[in-house]
Amino acid sequence: MDFKSLKDVNTSKALLKEIYDSFLAEIKKAKDIDVNAVKSGFDKYFVTFFKENYINFSGRISRHQFWLVVLFSVLIGSILDIIPILGCAYAIALLVPAVCMFIRRLHDLDVSGWWVIALAIIAMIPILGIIFICLVFALPGDAKENTYGTISK
Predict the structure, then answer these.
(1) Would you say 105 and 66 are in contact if contact means Cβ atoms under 8 Å apart?
(2) Helix, coil or strand: residue 42
(3) Rounded to an integer, what distance in angstroms lies between the CA atom of residue 64 and that of residue 72?
């Protein structure tokens, strides 16, 4: 983009109109989101995880369920962070279930859950540690039964 061209009022207006039109188009797309599908995913993955596997260190959790639980947890935490005490309480309440979920995700990769300690140490490395952990948890799990149980769906 040539910033010198922004000095011309008509060019600036045209650019702003283009940005505004694309913004409106994105809002119209967002209105087409199927709320029932989002609620179904929330119930199927997030609520089910906390009902059945709140403190379950054994077994496996699929990559799909893991990332959806993380997504919904981050969304809820972001909303609760508006009132700091609620955000802190939510983070503390999720500490043990998060560790359980990390261990079960490592089990899906056919790795011992004790590796969660090594991942916690790696997480202390600024930026690169978090990127590494995200890459580890993004790896596909075993396609067959492994040491830690049957295939998770």
Answers:
(1) yes
(2) helix
(3) 12
Q: Cα(109)–Cα(133) distance, rounded to whole angstroms?
A: 13
- Rounded to the nearest angstrom, the gap between the alpha carbon of residue 3 and the centroid of all alpha carbons in its chain is 37
Q: What is the distance of C-alpha 20 from the center of its chain?
A: 29
What's the mean per-residue pLDDT of the chain? 83
Between the alpha carbon of residue 34 and those of residues 18, 24, 29, the distances in Å are: 27, 19, 11
Name the burial class of residue 7, with classes exposed (0-12), middle (13-18) and buried (19+) by CB atoms within 10 angstroms of its CB: exposed
pLDDT at 55: 86
- The pLDDT, as a whole number, for residue 17 is 74
pLDDT of residue 133: 93
Q: How far apart are the C-alpha atoms of 103 and 57, rounded to whole Å?
A: 6
